[in-house]
Amino acid sequence: MYSRVLKICSWVLELCLAPAKRTVRRWRAARHRSVLSEHSLLRYAALTLLYAAQGFPAGLLSIAMPAYMAQQGLTPIQISWYAGIVVLPWSLKLINGPIMDRWTFLAMGRRRPWVLAAQAGMIGTSLALVLLPDPLEHLALLTACGFAINFFTAFQDVATDGMAIEIVPVEEQPRANSFMWGGKALGKSGAIFGGAWLLDGYGLAGAMVAHTAAVGVVMLVPLLLRERPGERLLPWTRGQASEIARHLQLEGWRDIGRSLLKVVVWPVSLRAAACMFVFSLGTGFLDVLLPVFTVQELGWHHTEYSGLNATATAVSAIIGAFTGWMLIEFLGRHRTIAAGAALLCLASVAMGLMSELWEHELTAQAYIAAFLLIDVLVTIAFLSLMMAICWRRVGATQFSLYMAISNMGTAAGNAMMGHLKAVLSYPDMFLVPAATTALVIFLALGVDLAGQRRRLAELEDGGD
Asked: In this predicted model, which residue has the larger pLDDT, 338 or 67?
């Protein structure tokens, strides 16, 4: 009698609790599905969006603004100094990496807290720039605000790269880098096109309001996704640091410095870093040369250049995202770099030697489109190469060192353009990137990635 009553009571209780149990199961399943380390498609989508957010300031501040400045009559030296200074924070990534490897809030993930903090900084500094009156009349303040925005963007970049190195398997890195750089190129393209239109119609304030809103939307990605299972979504929610994150975390500057030095002085590391610097020197030079050349020499309106750049960047991003990883798997990382550098070298030589064809708009249009496509494909190959030669334990520091070296090349190329224009003609100016890319071919073909991976595997196993 009593057992039958107990069975009935338990059946009724089970019936009443069934909806709650289903809710708990769904919640646990949702928590599992929102973990980046567990799902490749989620990783690809999240990393692509985070890289798109990095493309917004690159397109607006480094492409649309210089073209707008050229239209407003600023000199090549003023434009090149502005462009060189606003990208300088990308060279400071050497500092960002060790800070992130040394300190973080592990309960929320090893990299995710830094991504959130960096995006909050991007939003705050963008809003500050909205308040700047007559930006071209206050060029120093405009440059300082652009520097600050890129400072926080560089922090986000290092945190995202560190996350990718840790949670993306090596065999997935070419595909992940294709999507990531494709996302950045699409974000950059949208910022160029939209930024040029907004600058023309609503001034810098209107362009920065749109920039702030776009970054805010992307910030939802790190807010809603965890790096690894069991971690906290927010500081006040439940969760704890994963064992993998605890194992990878270094506790002192000496450990970071010793581990970094162990791998960056290897010949493959030094050669790859030099190769990336030289390539960035040439592309940084072209980033500033092309808007000045098309607006002040060929007579284009700044929105014509920005529109072409945006369209070509978007097409390049789509091609890079869907075919870049296949090209890398077919040719290999270093051979893809060499092939792209060879094509850009030939195009630059042809552009410099055939100045009589500049009166036809198609000549400059074809060169700009080719440059942007090659830049996307080679950059994807570089990112994949540099991730593959990184040691996971100091991944953020090592990768940020390579990216800092690359961005030093970009900043040097930006600043170099104005000074060389004072002594060289436009045809001669196109021979500068031709010379740098010729050197890239030589450096890239000497990179031994297989040997580097073997030595890293020995380190992971505890060898020297």
From this structure: 338
pLDDT digits (tens, 9 = 90+) for 10-29: 554 465 445 444 433 443 44
Neighbours of 295 (CB within 10 A): 24
| Residue 1: burial class (beta carbons within 10 Å; 0-12, 13-18, 19+) | exposed
423, 254 contact by CB (below 8 A): no
CA distance 432 to 31: 53
Alpha-carbon distances, residue 140 vs 54, 143, 271, 396 (angstroms): 23, 5, 37, 32
Placement of tokens 């060879």 in the chain: 342
For the CA atoms of 207, 210, 215, 220, what is the dihedral angle to 10 degrees? 180
Instruction: Please give the structure tokens belonging to residue 273.
Output: 């870093």
- Determine the Cα–Cα distance for residues 292 and 305; give it in Å rounded to an integer: 10
What CA–CA distance (Å, rounded) separates 303 from 65? 10
**CA angle, corner 107, sides to 104 and 108, nearest 5?**
75
pTM of the entire predicted model: 0.69
Question: d(Cα 438, Cα 446) in Å, to the nearest integer?
Answer: 14
To the nearest 10 degrees (0 to 180), the angle between helices 361-388 and 395-421 is 150
Provide the token pair at 397: 């520091």
- Is there a contact between 337 and 279 (Cβ–Cβ < 8 Å)? yes
Mean pLDDT of all residues belonging to the chain: 81
β-partners of residue 35 are: 226
Which residues, 6+ apart, have CB-to-CB distance to 439 below 8 Å?
A: 278
φ and ψ at residue 235, rounded to 5 degrees:
-55, -30
Cα separation, 182 vs 170, in Å, equals 19
Cα–Cα distance for residue pair 375/280, rounded to 1 Å:
9
